[in-house]
Design brief:
Blueprint (H helix, E strand, L loop, with lengths): L7 H13 L2 H8 L3 H15 L4 E4 L2 E4 L1 H25 L7 E7 L1 H8 L3 H7 L3 E7 L13 E6 L6 E8 L3 E3 L2 H6 L20 H9 L15 H9 L5 E3 L5 H5 L15 E7 L6 H40 L1
Parallel strand pairs: 3-4, 3-5
Antiparallel strand pairs: 1-2, 5-9, 6-9, 7-8
Helix pairs in contact: 1-2, 1-3, 1-4, 2-3, 5-9
Length: 318
């Protein structure tokens, strides 16, 4: 008996778009353009005589008929895939793509050195990293989730705090030994390594009560470059215990002052109203675990350093 079926490519495009709740993600999975996915779905809707998606200002949503249809289609494609694997004798694991938007400093100084651990723990997920200063618009851009630094107040996103941080100057131990710098007022302005804007330095200098006397005059670098420059003894970088964590634990950087800005943090973000998929949740949980380990390692190193200083101070006081 002849089967009355729509075009297979249209079915594949619809099933992928429905599963991802995104035409862009479906296009990436199928290795076609966004326009091709959209065209296939229009073709399928015309063939069926019913709407499968509602186009909204923030993306697309399945209609009730679309939800019912994709549930059966996904089961059907799974059966076809299993039958093909059984005949061919080859098991091919389909990797799910997860596109993550992060700032360059977080990516270079913390995330990238740890990505191997995520891949080992989650071999079924293909991570795509987009390192950018730009705030991603999840309704239009390709990113599924992101990691942002700030106070957690952004429009049209769901934000879950990963960690609160202490933003404070860091420098190499050698710089402190070579210079007579004991309090914030002692810092030479030309040793303040600047990020692209002076916003964070101005906030910290105000908190330290020296904003009227000290203005940053050091070279302007990206934040992902200020920390390595500080490690090299070129000045003071303003950083938190996450992006400077490895250098603090390794003793390549120290935090000489108690003054810190404490109302910033790292947040796991996704489009508002968008539910977490399994890959998103896996990355979210992994981030929480890894950042907690970094903060604990920094705390342990700080406590150890304080313990080492205390006996020396007591000996000098005798």
């Amino acid at each position: 008996m002849a089967r009355n079926l729509p075009p297979l490519n249209a079915l594949k495009a619809f099933e992928a778009a429905a599963r991802h709740e995104s035409f862009t993600a479906a296009a990436a999975e199928l290795n076609v353009t966004h326009a091709a996915v959209s065209r296939h779905i229009r073709e399928l809707e015309g063939w069926l005589g019913t709407k499968l998606f509602l186009r909204t200002g923030r993306g697309v949503e399945l209609t009730e008929r679309g939800k019912s249809y994709v549930a059966d289609l996904t089961r059907g494609f799974d059966i076809l895939a299993a039958a093909t694997e059984n005949v061919s004798g080859r098991r091919r694991r389909r990797r799910q793509k997860l596109s993550v938007s992060v700032e360059p400093s977080f990516a270079a100084l913390w995330l990238v050195p740890r990505l191997g651990r995520f891949t080992v723990a989650n071999p079924e997920i293909e991570l795509i990293l987009d390192s950018t200063h730009r705030l991603v618009d999840f309704s239009r851009d390709e990113a599924d989730v992101g990691v942002r630094y700030g106070r957690g107040v952004w429009s049209n996103v769901a934000a879950d705090r990963l960690a609160a941080t202490n933003l404070t100057p860091v420098c190499s131990p050698a710089l402190l030994r070579d210079r007579s710098i004991r309090i914030p007022a002692d810092i030479p302005p030309d040793l303040l390594l600047q990020e692209e804007t002076r916003r964070y330095w101005n906030e910290w200098l105000s908190a330290a009560g020296v904003a009227e006397r000290i203005s940053p005059e050091g070279p302007t670098l990206g934040l992902h470059l200020t920390v390595p420059a500080a490690e090299a003894g070129q000045g003071f970088a303003l950083a938190d215990e996450v992006i400077a964590g490895d250098a603090l634990v390794g003793g390549r950087l120290v935090r000489p002052f108690a003054v810190a800005i404490r109302d910033y943090g790292y947040y796991f973000v996704r489009g508002a109203g968008r539910k977490e998929t399994k890959p998103m949740t896996a990355f979210h949980v992994w981030l929480n675990t890894e950042i907690a380990q970094t903060l604990q390692a920094v705390a342990n190193a700080t406590e150890k350093a304080a313990s080492a200083i205390a006996p020396a101070t007591k000996r000098r006081g005798r």
